[in-house]
Structure formats: structure tokens, C-alpha cells
Amino acid sequence: MANEITIPTITDLVNETESTVKMNNLMVLLNQNPPNEWLVSHPMINGYRYIPIERVEWLLSRIFKKWWVEILDSKIVANSAVVTVRLFVINPLDGTEWHNDGIGCAPIQTDKGAGATDFNKVKSDGVTKAMPSAETYAIKDAADKFGKIFGKDSGRKTNINYNNLIKESITKKDLV
Description:
Layout: H1 10-14, H2 18-30, E1 40-41, E2 49-50, H3 53-64, E3 67-77, E4 80-90, E5 97-107, H4 126-143
Antiparallel strand pairs: 1-2, 3-4, 4-5
């Protein structure tokens, strides 16, 4: 049947090829901790540091060369703008297209003391400011799924080391 799925065996998973070595090396790069000087203190979350969008966009351009964003959805929920995006990149090793989805939200500015759903108190430019911010958060959410260098483990207490995957090259004895 044309629709049959072949499940890899354990041997398939542990065998190394030139392409799996290159993919592992890319995974190691994507899962390096970002340099501390790239991190910025969050203005509203005490003690939380994050990678700003300009650094995320620079990394996307530097690592993947070509990337783009599709907005899947935008809406207002209570007093927040919510944006869902799909972030596309081109795998630098084989030219295939990869994508991750992300979601972001940003509060809509209201008059002081207004309730979350009191739309009569929304600032005149509240939605205009909130939607782009929500899109930025969504792009960052999608990018961090590519790896630590984009902020994947920011704020997590546990940390997985990917460095043991790296190999400079593969020899014939490594190929099974």
C-alpha cells in the first residue's frame, strides 16, 4: 500500500549517516545557551530575562538564511490581543522547509481602573499597539521551539545538554 508507514527500528535510530551527523550538529548549535549579554531583564516580570525580538530575528537570518511568518489568527480575548503565527524556515542542510507555530498575547491599554472587558475605556490606540506586540510574542514563541539559542529554556529549572551529539566527521566504522 502507498500509505503504509514504516516505523524505524532501534538500529535505524542509533545508526549514523553523514546526514544524521550534520543534523545532530545543527541541533547542538540550536541548543546552545544564548550568551548572557543577549538577555534583557523583563520590565514586568521580576528576575526574568529574555531574548529580545531583534536578536531572535537576527539569529533566524543568520542560521536559516531564509525565514518568513504567516499570521494564522488574530483576535481580542477579554482585554488582550491574541495572535497565532506559523514561522517558516529553510533547513540550511538540505533546503527543506520547517515550521513551528506560536501564540502571543498583549494587553490592550485601558483607562486606569477599567475592568478587563470594559471596552468603553480602551485607549484610542490600544489595539494598534497591542496587536504588533502580540505578533512579536507569537514569533518568539514559535522560534524558541527551534532551540535554546532562541530562548527555549529561559526560566526553566531543568536543562538538557545536547553537546554529546556533536561529531566533527563520520568514519566508515561509524556507518553501519
